[in-house]
Amino acid sequence: MSAFHIRRPRLIDVAQRAGVSSATASLVLNNRVTGNVRIPPETQQRVLAAAEELGYVADPVAQSLARGRNGLLGVFTFEAIFPVTHRDFYYPFLVGIERAAEMLGFDLLLFTSTSVGDGRRRIYRDGRNRLRLADGAILLGVEESKTEVQALVQEGYPFVFVGRRELEGCEISYVAADYAAATAELIERMVNVGHLRIAYVGAEQFTESLLDRRRGYRDGLAASGCAVDDSLLCLCTGQRMVAPQLQTLLDQGVTAVVTESGPIAYSLLQACNELMLDIPGDLSVGLMGDPFGDMENVGHLSGFSIPREEMGAQAVHLLTRLLDTKTPATSQQASLPCKPVAGSTIAPPRTRP
Amino acid sequence: MSAFHIRRPRLIDVAQRAGVSSATASLVLNNRVTGNVRIPPETQQRVLAAAEELGYVADPVAQSLARGRNGLLGVFTFEAIFPVTHRDFYYPFLVGIERAAEMLGFDLLLFTSTSVGDGRRRIYRDGRNRLRLADGAILLGVEESKTEVQALVQEGYPFVFVGRRELEGCEISYVAADYAAATAELIERMVNVGHLRIAYVGAEQFTESLLDRRRGYRDGLAASGCAVDDSLLCLCTGQRMVAPQLQTLLDQGVTAVVTESGPIAYSLLQACNELMLDIPGDLSVGLMGDPFGDMENVGHLSGFSIPREEMGAQAVHLLTRLLDTKTPATSQQASLPCKPVAGSTIAPPRTRP
DNA sequence: CTGAAAGCGCTTACAG
DNA sequence: CTGAAAGCGCTTACAG
Question: Closest Cα to residue B173, out of B336, B315, B337?
């Protein structure tokens, strides 16, 4: 503190000027003058006047310390939050998170100090949980570290994942999208217009959200009375389906395909191009999620859209509920419906069986 | 605190486990083990180990109170940070801010709790400066409240604005883009290919960054030996230029136009369409900034691009430098060059004078 | 080298 | 109704 620094008035200054104790001043300033404490209006006025005359502003830091909560919700991503490539991925979640935080009166603490150099982030740095800076945290990220999350559970730190996450031996809180139901509905839409052989094209990954889609695929087929043929569920390398693979599916009588992600859908469309296939004339295509921003020119894909903004908002609500709960052991899950997108890439198959 | 709640470890817990006083533990944990204090490596190890075993993380609120600093950099916007409409506006700044914060090891505190209901935000809530939760803050936003910024200056709170801001009677720190130089350069580019009558189309607003462009416009003309004709500097309502306005300019012999913003450029292009004007054949067009995301299909506009990411990063660096400074009265400004964009909308005028 | 103690600015039972 | 005091969790001279 240099001599230039303008010393701000403290509670004690207000109290002295009003001729009361700092306790009384605090009570008045915080409007805690009902119930047990009953402070005469006259005294209240003196305190209020003194505060105004001095331009008193309570130090939020001291208040936080005294009250035991800091009103900070953490946001942690296992990759950079604002990377150019993931832009379209994270953004809607953040919009929802911000909206809910604003509504509930919380500030957001973005953990950006825990880089480990390779573009990834850690919760624990030197064995210390940075997240503790906040009362609780929202976790986001496609490539989370199961080890770190497990440690978080063990130390009883309150957090909510955006997206379903399962961990052996412990239940964790999350807000997910109901991919299974949305996928089943998409399949049923295809069956309803006459498709019987519907292929599933996904990535060679096994995250919870992908497993949900695959479950929905089988469920949808079963519910529609279609045979589930596992040779039609094909997982391709590097999020890319190539023309020969597509040809193989067609040879098996496939008339419709559901794709797991934007990049896969994109590669599928390219493959269709190569094979001179008309969509949806020769092949119906569904996308189980949102297209990438830079592939919006591929036409209006049928499928469903992920309620990202809502997921972010609900995660915040769930977290604050968790913070208000006495027993932190309770974990809670929520699953939000995806919104069907009609699109223009589903049509009856050309050759009716 | 219920019995189930896993009590967050405190410094005293670490100290006890390591068999030292909390003072010693604090010293070790803060790496203050050089100079006057010399703590044997063995003791240090014990403390570090205890901290790790307990998952100890210092409470930033307590630290802040005790030493007046907490390693948190605030980010404040006068509107929502992640709004859908401003998406393209804020995003690049945030990318830069995050990158710099990560590099310097700071976490980011996003102030989202201070909504006032009308979509705008306040720094002061109930007369209290929320920003004080952080050591200092980056301020962003097109529609700042001069009153609040003034109050911030008066209480000596360290902050850096992204974008030039002037306030009567006090100097504030900012990282700006050098719009004046970039605009002058753009004008000179036009003059160099033969334009003599260059119009300026802007908005009926008078923010610092717009004034800078207007100054650059005059400077560029003067530097090129062109007459400065104020009737060619036209400010239109609602960020929209209509065909009649454009016609008026053409009637005055205008062969080139610089536009102040994406929306204005967009409306200008529409007006050109209506008047059946070819760009750049009949009219050269320059944009003094970046196009909006959804107008990228209007072709590659000549002009310059704002170094948003760099501005964000530099603002963080400047802020941390400010925090290290003893006298808070010192304010600092930085101005970053814009990047010229060649584009394809500048060509020699059809009729050589 | 290390501990006891004061202090950061506020809140909150607890007495009276 | 109101004040003295303890406490929030940490840091930092100051002694020893």
Answer: B315
CB A240 within 8 A of CB A264: yes
The reply to whether B65 touches chain A by the CB within 8 Å rule is yes
Rounded CA gap, B80 and B82, in Å?
Answer: 6
- Asked if A109 and A134 touch (Cβ cutoff 8 Å), the reply is yes
Task: Look up residue B128 and give its two tokens.
Answer: 């209290």
Nearest to A155 among B55, B59, B155 (CB): B55
Task: Give the pLDDT confidence of A242-297 residue by residue, as tens digits.
Answer: 999 999 999 999 999 999 998 899 999 999 999 999 999 999 999 999 887 555 55
Q: What domains can you pick out in chain B, each with its CATH number?
A: 3-67 (1.10.260.40), 72-177+308-338 (3.40.50.2300), 179-305 (3.40.50.2300)
pLDDT above 90 for B80: no
Beta carbons of A108 and B107 less than 8 Å apart: no
Other Cβ atoms closer than 10 A to A1: 9
Cα(A303)–Cα(A315) distance, rounded to whole angstroms?
A: 24
Q: Using alpha carbons, select from B28, B100, B64, B70 the residue that is nearest to residue B315.
A: B100
Report percent pLDDT > 90 for chain B: 53
**Contact assignment for B110 to A107 by CB distance below 8 Å:** yes
Q: Is A10 exposed, middle or buried (0-12, 13-18, 19+ CB in 10 A)?
A: middle
- More confidently predicted of A184 and A109: A184
Q: Which amino acid is at A269?
A: L
| pLDDT exceeds 90 at position B69 | no
Would you state the pLDDT for residue A6? 55
Q: Please, which residues 7-26 of chain B have a Cβ atom closer than 8 Å to chain A?
A: 8
Cα B283 to Cα B304: distance, rounded to the nearest angstrom: 18
CB atoms B2 and A106 under 8 Å: no
Cβ neighbours of residue A95 closer than 8 Å, sequence gap 6 or more: A309, A312, B82, B83, B84
B52–chain A Cβ distance below 8 A for any pair: yes
> How long is the CA B45 to C1' D16 vector, in angstroms?
24
Contact assignment for A102 to B84 by CB distance below 8 Å: no
Taking C1' of D5 and every protein CA, the nearest residue is A23
Q: DSSP 3-state helix, strand, coil percentages of chain A (rounded to 5)?
A: 40, 20, 40
**pLDDT of B286:** 96
Is 80 exceeded by the pLDDT of residue B124? no
pLDDT top residue among B313 and A5: B313
pLDDT tier at A1, thresholds 50, 70, 90: very low
Residue B150 backbone dihedrals phi, psi, to 5 degrees: -60, -45
Q: Does residue A32 lie within 7 Å of nucleic acid chain C, judged by its CB? A: yes
What local confidence, expressed as pLDDT, does residue A296 receive? Answer: 54
B151, with CB counted inside 10 A (0-12, 13-18, 19+), is: middle
If pLDDT is split at 50, 70 and 90, which confidence band does B176 have?
very high
